[in-house]
Specification:
The complex is a heterodimer. By secondary structure, chain A is mainly β. Chain A has 2 domains: 203 residues, Alpha-Beta Complex (Spore Coat Polysaccharide Biosynthesis Protein SpsA, Chain A), CATH 3.90.550; 168 residues, Hexapeptide repeat proteins (UDP N-Acetylglucosamine Acyltransferase, domain 1, 3 Solenoid), CATH 2.160.10.10. Chain A is built from 6 helices and 39 strands. In chain A, the strands form 7 sheets. In chain A, strands 14, 17, 20, 23, 26, 29, 31, 34, 36 and 38 form a 10-stranded parallel β-sheet that branches. Chain A has a 9-stranded mixed β-sheet with strand order 5-4-1-6-11-8-12-10-9, sandwiched between helices. In chain A, strands 15-18-21-24-27-30-35-37-39 form a 9-stranded parallel β-sheet, with no helix packed on it. Chain A is globular and about 65 Å long. By secondary structure, chain B is of the alpha/beta class. Chain B has 3 domains: 238 residues, 4-Layer Sandwich (Glutamine Phosphoribosylpyrophosphate, subunit 1, domain 1), CATH 3.60.20; 169 residues, Glucose-6-phosphate isomerase like protein, domain 1 (Rossmann fold, 3-Layer(aba) Sandwich); 160 residues, Glucose-6-phosphate isomerase like protein, domain 1 (Rossmann fold), CATH 3.40.50.10490. In chain B, a hairpin with a 2-residue loop joins strand 13 and strand 14. In chain B, the strands form 4 sheets. Chain B has an 8-stranded antiparallel β-sheet, with helices on one face. Classes of the chains: A mainly beta, B alpha/beta. At the A-B interface, helix 2 and strand 5 of A face strand 15, helix 7 and helix 15 of B.
Chain lengths: 387, 579
């Protein structure tokens, strides 16, 4: 049997995830310290798929650099301009020789789901979602998809497309001038090729930045116990905790898993890390700080006596001492849509905040500077200075 | 990182293995070796590059062969430590890529059992372990031996009078290629591509027995099927992993190189010795010379040491009076002129320090002590990440001389480097496309940065670019300024900011288009130049790196737009090993 190919679409920016997609595409946003794309590549590899094609575009060098480090051979195709998912697939079309899997690079999928769909030709992995209006809703009869209705205002059902398809080379003929995949899928169904609906085992999507916290919590369930680095005296570590090489955990700190801490970090002394927290490489957390249910990206620094919960802290950001993030429910307007969300703070890359700041359910852009004692809420644009 | 290759079939194995190893040279090239089976095990191993050795292969007869190319990360690359390694009797030969973590324990046990070790490597343990279990069946012996190994490995084993190669892997890559009456194996697919497009990837924990006509794969002692994959990549894609050129790949590796080098320096306990000499002479060529000039400015400013920098090629014939310490800088460690300089310094009783990228290179053997930049193999002829590696070494040294004043600054520098990588450069590039001459100007530490920027532009885009200390431009070169000669001006805040601004205005007055590099949000520079390229605000030391990276990207993108052969510019070679 000829082995299957897989095409991963990782060219899009993921605008709704801003400010976190300022320096990398959505597929590269790290969750539990690994880019979402890497979970997909590894799941494919575990299913014995050896020919993986990744379509890159927005900040492509970041993707290529990471893929190079994986030791899994991956072919890269460049989509020069981001003209939609169907166009992205068309860029990869010359390399497609037979049946292939099509996957978006920015949603988590587990190994078992891929195994379910691999044997099928013309099938889609489906998922029951409580808020189907953000997705392609599937009209299913007798196990076959009748139609994909993209982002309906009034959803006729809860079963949505994960965007993961198993397709034959004939599908490429339906791409035509379409810009998005679902249109081409509808055209294929209309032409009489049935599309089987296969429920996925575990699928996780992040549309808005605060969704990353949920995704992070879900993926941390799979964290493996690992203890590299130096762990000080009287440190309490409970549950699944992974600590990277070169990291120092200062005395009297408490870490309650699931937690993953990257390499060369400096934590504590006297810090508390609560469950569902990911801490990237080279992060510094100064003494007497509490962090929980948060995503701290690489090179960030959190000052002492801070309380950071339900927050995403961007790469290279420095949060001054005595900072607090306070989770509250507010309505946000993102890309023209009004969304209700509850989280502490989403802080972009290279933000500097002086001591005693309160982040009250806010989204802070990249390179923002905040003077001491400010209370931030709502949205702060990139490069702003709060004085 | 190392590379391994094996061949079993109907052709002479040795030349094919050597050919394959050359393809893997990007994985390391400080020593190599080949073993063949022909009723006896024949071995040749040598330190140095395969492509330059012109090794005599006539002793290597046989149609079964294995080979290895090494990038020593610990342990000196000499003939003895080179692979393949053999057991006590020389009847079993092993090549290995990876690290055996429990080798010390195994070695002790094997020595107790009477095995005699010849090298310092972890690999030799495997050979003796296989010998220990060998009772006529090589496959059974390897299967038993690998159970004791902890760590990562991809190994190929051959034995006297056994018409097979036995392969095993765990956490290190190994691919088999199925040809016509021949089977190849290698660390990645590149060596296979010329022979076959049918590849079999082994899984972790697999042991495989290869003959000329078949592959038998075993996992936990059970025979398993591994599917055949069709490969259709070109040789170059496989190595560059999606980047258009090695140079761009290496530019993007720089944040990591800088961070790793600084981290490695922190562990070097000999560095405080740098506080002792009152005078330091640095000898270097090309890009290394520019890195040394940066060091001169920084060391004089922050430690008040007297530093002089000499071209190695001049130093040999016009040796200045030497005192205290001489530092030799060379990426490859093989630059002929720099090597001679070290000998001269030693003859005058100076202490010598080598800064290089290649462990076990000639320079590291002849200098009193060596500091390594952790840049990894650099393939593009135009040096990028090795320059950053050298800057990291020098800045680490300055930090020690200044009693650790810059530890924090250097620990976060990789962030700023990361931030300039995606910098949009289209406007600046289009300004240079029609130029045949151009200038780079800067002051202080940015003067050598300007020299390096000009060198990169010359090397790969073939535009005649000259770097000047901004104040020197008026003493002659000003006559050349015209609307056809673009100028790249480095205008960062500091003592020279004001005078740089007036220099830029003078150049503008002569009609030269100016590309200005300044810190983010500097509207004053932005308003007087034609194209403004921002860099993040940071310490002057870090800015010297970020500006160099910007200038590398500018040269790269210009050369790319002019469709030059970026990785192999005309007339140039990576390391100059002749005078």
């Amino acid at each position: 049997m000829k082995t299957m190919q897989a095409v991963i679409l990782a060219a899009g920016e993921g605008r709704r995830l801003r400010p976190l997609t300022h320096a990398m595409p959505k597929a590269m946003v790290p969750v539990a310290n690994r880019p979402i794309l890497e979970y997909i590549v590894r799941a494919l590899e575990k299913n014995g798929i050896r020919e993986i094609i990744v379509v890159v575009g927005y900040k492509k060098e970041q993707v290529i650099r990471h893929l190079n480090g994986l030791e899994i051979p991956v072919k890269v195709v460049v989509q020069e301009r981001q003209l939609g998912t169907a166009h992205a697939l068309k860029c990869a079309a010359p390399l497609i020789t037979g049946d292939f899997l099509l996957l978006p690079g920015d949603n988590y999928i587990d190994t078992a789901s891929i195994a379910r769909i691999m044997g099928e030709r013309n099938a889609v992995l489906t998922w029951d979602h409580p808020h189907p209006s953000n997705f392609g809703v599937l009209m299913i009869r007798d196990g076959s998809v009748q139609q994909v209705i993209e982002k309906p205002s009034e959803a006729p059902g809860f079963t949505v497309s994960t965007g993961i398809f198993s397709l034959g080379p004939a599908f490429l003929d339906f791409l035509g001038d379409e810009t998005e995949i679902p249109n081409a899928i509808n055209a294929m169904i209309a032409a009489g090729t049935p599309l089987k609906a296969v429920p996925a085992e575990d699928w996780q999507d992040a549309i808005y930045p605060w969704d990353l916290l949920r995704l992070n919590a879900a993926l941390l369930q799979g964290v493996r116990q690992e203890r590299a680095g130096r762990i000080g005296s009287s440190v309490v570590i409970k549950g699944q905790v992974s600590i990277g090489r070169g990291t120092t955990i200062g005395p009297n700190s408490t870490i309650l898993g699931p937690v993953v801490i990257g390499e060369d970090c400096e934590i504590g002394p006297n810090c508390v890390v609560l469950p569902e927290t990911s801490i990237g490489d080279r992060v510094r957390i100064e003494p007497f700080t509490l962090i929980g249910h948060s995503l701290i990206l690489a090179d960030a620094c959190i000052g002492s006596h801070a309380r950071i919960t339900d927050a995403v802290v961007g790469t290279g950001t420095q949060v001054g001492d005595h900072a607090t993030t306070s989770p509250q429910r507010t309505i946000f307007s993102i890309e023209g849509e009004l969304i209700r969300a509850k989280f502490g703070a989403i802080i972009g890359d290279n933000v500097r905040s002086a001591p005693f700041c309160v982040f009250k359910n806010c989204i802070v852009g990249n390179n923002v500077c905040v003077e001491d004692g400010k209370t931030l809420y709502g949205e702060v644009p990139d490069g702003a200075r709060i004085i | 990182m190392c590379g391994i290759v094996g061949y079993i079939g109907w052709k002479e194995a040795a030349p094919l293995v050597i050919e394959g190893l050359k393809r893997l040279e990007y994985r390391g090239y400080d020593s190599f070796g080949v073993a063949t089976e022909n009723g006896d095990i024949n071995i040749i191993k040598k330190s140095g590059k395969i492509s330059e050795s012109g090794a005599d292969l006539s002793a290597l007869v046989g149609t079964i062969g294995i080979g290895h190319t090494r990038w020593a990360t610990h342990g000196v690359p000499n003939d003895c430590n080179a692979h393949p390694h053999t057991d006590c009797t020389g009847a079993i030969a092993v090549v290995h890529n990876g690290i055996i973590e429990n080798y010390a324990v195994l070695k002790r046990k094997l020595i107790e059992k009477g095995h005699r070790f010849k090298s310092e490597t972890d690999t030799e343990v495997i050979a003796h372990l296989v010998e220990e279990y060998f009772s006529g069946d090589l496959l059974a012996a390897v299967t038993a031996a690998v159970r004791h190994l902890e760590g990562s490995y991809a190994i190929l084993v051959i034995a006297k009078d056994d018409q097979r190669i036995v392969a095993a892997r765990k956490s290190s890559p190994l691919v088999l290629g199925i040809g016509d009456g021949e089977v190849l194996c290698a660390s990645d697919v590149t060596p296979l591509l010329e022979h076959t497009q049918r590849a079999v990837y082994l899984e972790d924990g697999d042991v495989a027995a290869l003959t000329a006509s078949r592959i038998d794969v075993y996992h936990d002692g059970v025979r398993v099927e591994r599917s055949i994959t069709h490969i259709d990549w070109s040789v170059d894609d496989a190595k560059k992993g999606g980047f258009e050129h090695y140079m761009l790949k290496e530019i993007y590796e720089q944040p990591e190189v800088f961070y790793n080098t600084i981290k490695a320096l922190e562990k070097d306990t000999r560095l405080p010795m740098l506080r002792i000499p009152a005078e330091i002479t640095v000898v270097a060529c090309g890009t290394s010379y520019h890195a040394a000039l940066v060091f001169r400015y920084l060391a004089q400013e922050y430690s008040s040491k007297r530093v002089s920098v000499e071209f190695a090629s001049e130093f040999k014939y016009y040796t200045p009076p030497l005192r205290d310490m001489v530092i030799a800088v060379t990426q490859s460690g093989e630059t002929a002129d720099t090597l001679t300089a070290i000998e001269k310094a030693k003859a005058r009783n100076c202490s010598t320090l080598a800064v290089t990228n290649v462990l076990g290179s000639t320079v590291s053997r002849s200098a009193d002590w060596t500091v390594f930049m952790c840049a990894g193999p650099e393939i593009s002829v135009a040096a990028t990440k090795s320059f950053t590696g050298q800057l990291a070494v020098f800045m680490g040294m300055v930090n020690v001389m200044a009693d650790g004043k810059f530890t924090e600054v250097l620990a976060h520098a990789h962030r700023s480097i990361e931030r300039v990588l995606p910098q949009e450069m289209g406007a600046a590039v289009s300004l240079l496309l029609s130029a045949t001459e151009m200038f780079y100007v800067g002051r202080g530490v940015f003067y050598p940065v300007a020299l390096e920027g000009a060198l990169k532009m010359k090397e790969i885009s073939y535009i005649h670019a000259e770097g000047y200390a901004a104040g020197e431009l008026k003493h002659g070169p000003f006559a050349l300024l015209s609307p056809e000669t673009p100028v790249v001006a480095i205008c960062t805040p500091g003592r020279t900011y004001g005078v740089m601004l007036s220099n830029v205005k003078e150049m503008k007055a002569r009609g030269a288009p100016v590309i200005g590099i300044g810190v983010e949000g500097d509207t004053e520079v932005e308003s007087i130049v034609d194209v403004f390229i921002p860099i993040p605000e940071d310490h002057q030391m870090v800015q010297a790196i970020t500006v160099s990276v910007i200038l590398q990207l500018l040269a790269y993108q210009t050369a790319n737009a002019l469709e030059r052969d970026i990785d192999k510019p005309r007339n140039l070679a990576k390391s100059v090993t002749v005078e």
